[in-house]
Amino acid sequence: xxxxxxxxxxxxxxxxxTVTLSRKHSNETASPEVSIANNDLQLLAWVRNVVAAGKIxxxxxxxxxxxxxYTWSIRDNKAISFLNEIKNYLIVKKQQAELIATSYKRCxxxxxxxxxEMLKRKLKLVAQIRKLNQR
Length: 135
Fold this sequence. Notes:
The chain is of the alpha+beta class. It contains 5 helices and 4 strands; from the N terminus they run H-E-E-H-E-E-H-H-H. A hairpin with an 8-residue loop joins strand 1 and strand 2 (about 30-40). Helix 4 (about 95-105) runs antiparallel to helix 5.
C-alpha cells in the first residue's frame, strides 16, 4: 500500500469503521477484527483490492426506506498486520489499534490452550477495547 492509501484507509476506519476484538463463535475467545460499513459497494471493493484481504458482506435493511449497506471486514492476523500498517494515520481509533497490535499476541497462545493467567489478561484486553469503543 502507498502512504496516501494508508492515510485514506485510516480516515475511513476513524469515520465509518470499527477496531475491536470479537468472537466468530460463542465457544471462542475474542479475536481482532477491523471493519468498515458503507452504502457504497464500489468503495468497499476498492478497500478490499488495496488491502488485498478481507470480505464484503451485505447488511440487512432494517427499514424499507433505508439504502442497502455493506460491510468490509478483516480478522485475526491479517487484521493485526493491517492495523500495524495504518495505525500511524489513525486518530479516533489509534488507542484500540495500538492495544491490539501490541498486546493481543502476548495474551493469546498459538495452540488455543489458555492458562488461567493468560485468560485473565485476554479478558482484561477485551474489556479495555470495549471501553474505548463505547460512545
